Structure formats: structure tokens, C-alpha cells
Amino acid sequence: MVTRATRSRSTTEAVAPPGSRGLIRWVAKAGSRGGRFRIPIRTVGGPRDGYFHLDWVKCATRLSSRQCDEIIRTGEGFAPEAPTVVGENILSAHRVGHVRLLPDVAQTEPIYRLLWDVAADAANRHYGLAITGITRMPHYVEYHAGYGHFHWHNDYSHESQESPRKLTVIVQLSDGDDYDGGDLQVFNVAPEAMPRERGTIICLPSFVTHRVTPVSAGVRRIVVAWIAGPRLV
Ligand SMILES: [Fe+2]
Predict the structure, then answer these.
(1) Which of 86, 100, 104, 144 has its CA 20 to 30 A from that of 32?
(2) CATH assignment of 35-228?
(3) Where are the domains of the chain?
């Protein structure tokens, strides 16, 4: 059983204004790459890899089931939160699911590093985006049948004018056959569903409109992180 980790580093939370819970300042430490979630990092997508467009890319290598199980156990070790979404006061059912924040602590460092490495590869190889770190705690989310969806939205910065969220990274921790519905889709000519295979790591520009369709059976488990950088110019 995973025990609740204590914070090993200070975050900006203590001085953050109300409504800013979860804000952090995480940057990748040089030489810390690796750990138990180390996999080959090469993102594929877009025309050069035989895809139609670059709305999203994925890591060519998937996490193993054992690695997915470990991330799930880590996520389950933190307290549930109420889901948050901008405008939730007028869109109360826009995002429905069980959310746990992954704080910036030693226990989660390998997860942060994995998410960062995938985003950094996608930023360099495909998108040409400057990124600098993670400014909001990643979320471990469970979408249960009858209580799991996220309507059309984008993730682009709301909390920081200077360091907007530019890339969204999502890890599919459930096997795609273990739940019905729960498709992660981007908005295009027609909604395009992204891969469901367990261990798939998907990266998309945070300003691309996307959604999660309602889960009608089973449970979809994911981790999502948003990678920030300088404002687009
Ligand atoms: Fe999103």
C-alpha cells in the first residue's frame, strides 16, 4: 500500500491566492533522467510518421503493465479533490471524474520526469515550442461509468500570463478493453479518437480542443500533466 508522501520541497502553494491550489514550480533537474519509469522516448505523429496531421503525437514505446500499476498505486495514495475547470461555476457538469493531485515530492519525481521527457521530445521533434517546466500539479484521474467525462475544452493557460500551459501529456493507464466510452478525442473535421492501449503516452498542444466522451462501463484511469513555457510570440 502506498502511503501518503510528505512534501520534500516547497511549492508556491503556500503563497498562492485562493483558487490557485495545485500551482507549483517544477523544472527538470539535469542528469536525473531515468528511474523506474524509464523507457525509450521518441514521439511519433504527423505526416512524417504517416499520420494525417499533428494535432497529437504519442510516445512510440508504451509503459509496461507493471509501470502502469505502479503509477495507479501512487495516484491512489493521494487524497481525492473536486474536479476543477475554468468556468465550473456556470458549467458544473463540464468535467466529471475522480481527481487526485500528484504533488511535487520525491515519490512522484520519476512520474514528473517521464511526463516532462515526452513533452520535451514532442516540443523539439514536432512542435517547435519552448517549454520550461511544470506549473500545476499533474492529475491522476479516474473516469467511472456514469461518472466520467470531460466535454470539449482546451488546456491553454489561464493561471499564468507569463508561463502558459503549452503541451498536455496524458498517460493511458487502463487497457482500452476495460472500459466502454471514455474516448479521448481531438476536434477536427470529425472528432478523432486517440489510442486507448494501456501505457500509451499522448502529447498534444494545450490549445487543441479535445474531450473525453462519457464512460459507460468500466473505469478509465489516466495521468495528465500540462507543460508550461514562455508565451507564444
Ligand atoms: Fe484537457
Answers:
(1) 100
(2) 2.60.120.620
(3) 35-228
